[in-house]
């Protein structure tokens, strides 16, 4: 009952001095909303940086398994612990932890440079590149027509291709008219042996199954205005690029995972797969790596930068706390006679102290509520105008990446709770001194005060 009465008195006291209460709250509101906005922007930048590095540096969220690897070096009979492509695909088809496919990065497949060609007038500069079905997701490709490479295509090393919209227009006149048609690719590939490097002529007859939207990186090598000379990737199954792959076994396998949230479950599934396959061998060892581990230094740097900005913004909370202390000191002084009467009637020091602490806390809670509202509002305004901001970017590759990446600027629940508790703590700490000053007043002195 005493608590309810104190809360009611606190609201009455704050409403009696609306201007003073509002001016006191401004510091806390600005501080809290600034902290929430900076934390939200920091989280957004961290997430975008990780996504950008994962897409462009690591080619997707990867769980890398090295079968037959000890702590520092391969164990004896390293090759005996290789895993076949059939076993890998059987495992992927029977798991439900978000593993999409494997990466072709570790197969050492060379890219072939040359031309897609129908005749002398209809051709397009191109690079033949072997990929898995995960390439569409990791590189955020937009398929305009047809489909992408599938696991089955790689399983059977099919001579199918996904070409760019530029190549489709150069060779067939439009994106619509090329699906299912056969096209020749002639090019060169550089090979290496003990005798040194050599250039080999290649020729492929490919069936077009899909067309993707080409996005320029902003770097032009040829400098030619003729779009037929603008080289774009022709994506084919990695097993077609190297026919020996589908019948080979591998010690290093990179599994592509749908998203970062699925990484722990995917890693656990890969561990079970390897352990069950070589369970009968007591000497078997393996190593598991993932992209999250590689990104830890980047995450740490971003966290430090965000933390520094949060500390700067939190200074305004301290300033707001000082303003709150000043308001409470004035309130205690104005109500000196009231304190004297309560003490004369038997009120304890703890009751007087609690009364002013509750008043300070109520003021802070109201300010925190408004601060959270504005922090979320500013975040929502930025998020709703993100398309316009992205439209200002000149680099087509970066613009495409941002347009195809979910961006959230609203603060997380944890950020709201921590910021609110910190603000409330500031209010109570700075409100304690005025409350304690009022509690220590002598009844006689207080009643005499004019």
Description:
It is a single chain. The chain is α+β, with helices and mostly antiparallel strands and 450 residues long. The chain has 15 helices and 13 strands. It has helices at residues 2-16, 18-56, 85-93, 135-138, 151-155, 165-172, 238-241, 263-277, 291-334, 336-344, 349-384, 386-391, 396-403, 413-439, 443-448, and strands spanning 61-67, 83-84, 99-102, 112-117, 123-131, 143-146, 160-164, 182-193, 196-212, 232-237, 249-250, 252-257, 286-290. It is elongated and about 105 Å long.
Strand content: 15-25%
Q: Which word captures the global form?
A: elongated
Average pLDDT for all residues: 82
The helicity comes to 40-55%
First and last CA, distance: 31 Å
Keywords for this entry:
single chain, 450 residues, alpha+beta, 7-stranded mixed β-sheet, 4-stranded antiparallel β-sheet, 19% strand
What's the arrangement of secondary structure elements?
Elements: H1 2-16, H2 18-56, E1 61-67, E2 83-84, H3 85-93, E3 99-102, E4 112-117, E5 123-131, H4 135-138, E6 143-146, H5 151-155, E7 160-164, H6 165-172, E8 182-193, E9 196-212, E10 232-237, H7 238-241, E11 249-250, E12 252-257, H8 263-277, E13 286-290, H9 291-334, H10 336-344, H11 349-384, H12 386-391, H13 396-403, H14 413-439, H15 443-448
Parallel strand pairs: 5-10, 7-9
Antiparallel strand pairs: 1-12, 1-13, 2-11, 3-12, 4-5, 4-8, 6-9, 8-9
